[in-house]
Structure formats: structure tokens, C-alpha cells
Amino acid sequence: MYELLAEIDSLRREKHSAPSQPSPHVSFQQAYEGLQPDTSPVLTQFRDEGSAEEVQAWEIAAEEPTLSYRNAQDPPLPHASATSLPRALQDLSVSGEDVDACFQIFLQHYLSYVPILETSLRPDDCYVYSPLLFWTILAIGSMRFERDPTLIIAIGPMVMELAKDAVFSCKDVIATIQSFTLLCTWPMPVETLERDPSPALAGAALQLAINSGLHVWGIGQDFSRRRLNPGGQNSVDFRAKLWVNCLIVCQRVNIAFGVSPPVLPDTYQREKYSERLSATLTPSIEFQRRLCLTHSEGIITLEKTLNSKVSDAYIVALKSEIENIVSDLKSLRTRSPTSFDQFLLDGAVLQISCFHMLLPQSALSSETLFQLYDIAVAFAQLGAELDQKQKIAEHAPPFFSRIMFLASCVILRIARSSLREALDLKKGREVYFKTIILHKRLSIRHDDAYSRATVILSQLWSGKMIEAQTRRSAGQVRVKCRSRLGMSLLYDCWWYWRQEFQGHPDPYPDEENRSDESEESMALQATPTSTDFGNMDLWWPSYEIFTGTYAQDADSRSGGLGNLTELEPNLAPAYHSLQTLPSTFAAADRSEQFPP
């Protein structure tokens, strides 16, 4: 792998031999003081004062960030004479032509999701303002840069090195917050979730934002050592946009990792500012602000109830709170301006509904599981439709992929339970396979976490251990991992996968969750022979995960992956050898029966 990266860098240096030009460093205070209304808070200082570089006019066809999706063909990337200067990071050189192309991709396809920059942003101005922000934008744009797909592989680790240095720097704080917000929204490719720096970046961004006074309406005078020029309302609006987007991203990171999201009091909730804030934000961001606030407050409420198990009364309270929070979330449905916002809302409903899985088995009704299954199927189906129509796997913030994985785990676990005969198994299987394909499209590198997710989802579907555990639990859906809030079921499935396909021991060896001998035998014998699965978890690194057949021979199994090969004929060999499992569980009563 490292030899490949070295060869890529060598070829790129031969292609782009022009040296980068030095640029004067402009601090945050210089860039943001003295702004006038209707000017860009990022670029004004550079255009007025000039710099050591001769920056040519750089125009692109970029719309305002309205999150409107276009089916028309995108304009071609710039191929003629480059208007931006070539740049170098460590030993990596990027031509001005590629700089322009990556910035154009970012401004056209990514910025509308997190509108914290001007759509007229020029690469050279951005580099003068903040090298970290410049390389962050270039790296995100290079994720889908077809002219040089190796660029993101080389530049990703270098950008993270810049981010690491910025954490301990006291300069350009606002630019650092912008960069970290973008890096948390579109993380650089990593082999494992263990190496995902998003939680650290999100925490740093949020703390820097608070220390800079972004949570307070105004220009932040109370948080500065020097007198600040008010600069008109444009500066206030910029700070409001950055704060809201930063908070949304930080809340999503925590939700995805199954920990408490931050809910911080700010002055933007005051009545005298709320109308101005709504006018400042795009309709989509305003909706997502309300959605994330409702979702985060709901999670914290449920967590407090789960932590107060002093009597059986908490069961009734938890059920009631789940219903109330879901109702509050659904009340936002009429405000969702786009289908993608509706998709995010449905994901929040699913994640909150998964708190039912943390109830004692005696309190978990069949009807609740039926409803949860239907919610998961509908959410996964909507995600597949949006990807087909709007290509969300290519440019949308991949936060939704973790919730899609959760939906797949819900479908899998309930379909393996005694309720299976009363479920629409055909629909569940179809959207499960579509989720596998969506993760394949999310993948940027052959060894990143999304590539690994396709294999893990496939093997979970064909595995034996989940069904064996369900049989031991009398057909009930039993969750061992219970501390990851609404994401607990997802982490529980990952542990089943580790046990069966990596030979890991049961991490919950207490009396209630003790493994039997058949499960231990399964864990020892399930490792395929053609691939080193000891290094193929979402939490451990691997560089060769598509080099063999990943499923065991299952001659005795009935069924199969159905129409998966019809959906995507170019899948890796793993998908063509996986088998489904029959069920021996008794059918549950339900008023409406679905075909198997």
C-alpha cells in the first residue's frame, strides 16, 4: 500500500513540476475586522489590500446553497488555461488546473449541504486566507475527481496532519472551525472507524466555536482582547451560519457514534433573534437545526431515563418518552423543504425508535418490533431511491450511511426472529441488498470503512450466529450491547460479526449473556481460508479485503441472495456466494400477512 502511494506521488510530481508560490499569511483578525455589508467575510480583505500573488479572475457556475437537485448534466470541469496557481503540500504538487477543478466540484456539489463559505470563493484567495481551509476544500473536491482519482489517496493523510497542527494553534480560529466542520461532514478516507478522527475534530471545533463566542449573537466583542469593528450585519450573519452548521455537524457525529450529542444554550433561541436567524439560514439548514435540536434533546431525555432504573416505572416512562419524541420529530415533517431533509427526519425517527430495543424482553411487544421493521424498511428504501435520483452517495454528507447500516441491522435481526413469517421479508431483503450497493458507491478507496461495510453487511446476512442466539432467546431479539443509546443494535451486530468471522470471544461473558458451545465452535470455524479476516473489521486495519471469497460454503443452506446480482452485476465474489438462512421459529400472529 505504501509503495503504491509513493509511486502515485512520484508520478504526480513528474506531471506537475511547477513550484508553488509563497503567500503572505493573513490572520483571522486581519481578515474579519472592518467588513462592510454585502461583502464576503472571507475574501474582502484580500481583494482590498491585495497580496504578493497576482490572482486572476476566477468565475464558476455555482448556485446559492438551496439544496435543489438538478438532473441536468453538470458543466465540464475547467480544462483550459488554469486561473489558479499550482500548490504544493509536503512533497505533493497539484497543478492550477486541478486546483480549479476540485474547487469547482466542491462549490457545485458539496457547499450547499454546509453553506459556511461564499459561492464565489476563489482558490488563491482561500489559500491566502487559510492554507488548512484551502487543502480541506481541495481534498473534499478530489473525492469524486475523475480526472485524477489518486489525488484523494495522497492528500487525505496530509490534510489530517494540517488539522492536527491546527488544534494546538491559536491562529486563524474561525478558519480552523470552518475546516473542522467540513472534515467532520466529509471525513477523509480511513481504513477503520477506530482511526476516524471525526469525534476529536467535532469536539475541538465546538470548543473553539464557544471560546470564540459564536454561540452568542453579535460580533463576539466579549470574547476578544481587542476592539472589533462591527462591520455591519454581514459579519453577524456569517457567525450565525457558522455556529449553526458547526453545532449540527457535532451533534450528528455523536449520534452516529452512539454517545450523547451536545445540546448547548445559545442566544439564537431568543425571540428577538429567531426571525433574523431564520432569514439568514437556508430553508434546509433551518430545518436541520430544528431537527437536530429535537433529536439531540430527545436522546438526552431517554438516556436520563435509562440511567434511572430504580423501579419498573422507568419502563412505562421510557415507552411514553419514545412516543412523545417520535411525535415531536414527525411534527417537523411539514417543514422539510427537500426530500433529503425528509430522509434525515426519517432517520432520526428510526434511531429514536431503536431505543425500544433497550427495554427488557418482557416489555418489548411484537407490535413494537413490527413497527420498527416497517420504519427501517421504509427508511432504507427512501435512501436507495434518493441515491438513484439524486446521487446522494456521491456528494451528500455520509452521516446517513451509519443510520442506513442501523436500518439494515434492524431488518436482519427482526427477520431472524420468531416474527419472520408475519413480515414482508421480500421487501426487507431487497432494501438490505440495496444498502450494500449504496455503501459500495460511498466507497472512495478499496480498503476504506465503506468498502468494509459492504463485506460485513453481506456476511451478517449469511452468518449463523445471530440466528443461533435468537433461537436460544426463544425467538426474541436480544441486544447485549446496551450502552450506545439508539445505535446499540448496530454495535451489537458488529460484535456478532467479530465473533463469527474473526473468532473473537464473546465480550459479554456474564451469566445472562454466556455463550454456549455451539456459538464458540461457530466463531472458531467461520473464518474463510482465502483472506486474513483478523485484519478486516471496521475497527482494525486491512488492505486486502476484496481478494478472495468471503462466505463459507453453505451447501446445506436454502435460499440465496435473490436479486442482488441483478441489482449490481459487478459486485465482488463475496456477494455471489452468500446464502440466506431458513428459519425454524414459529410464526407470530399479525392481522396482515406478507409473502415470504
TrEMBL record:
Residues 507-529 are annotated as: Disordered. The lineage of its organism: Eukaryota, Fungi, Dikarya, Ascomycota, Pezizomycotina. It is found in: Nucleus. This is Transcription factor domain-containing protein. It comes from the Eukaryota. PANTHER family: FINGER DOMAIN PROTEIN, PUTATIVE-RELATED (PTHR31845), REGULATORY PROTEIN LEU3 (PTHR31845:SF21). GO terms for molecular function: DNA-binding transcription factor activity, RNA polymerase II-specific; transcription cis-regulatory region binding. The keyword Phosphoprotein does not apply. GO terms for cellular component: nucleus. Keywords: DNA-binding, Nucleus, Transcription, Transcription regulation.
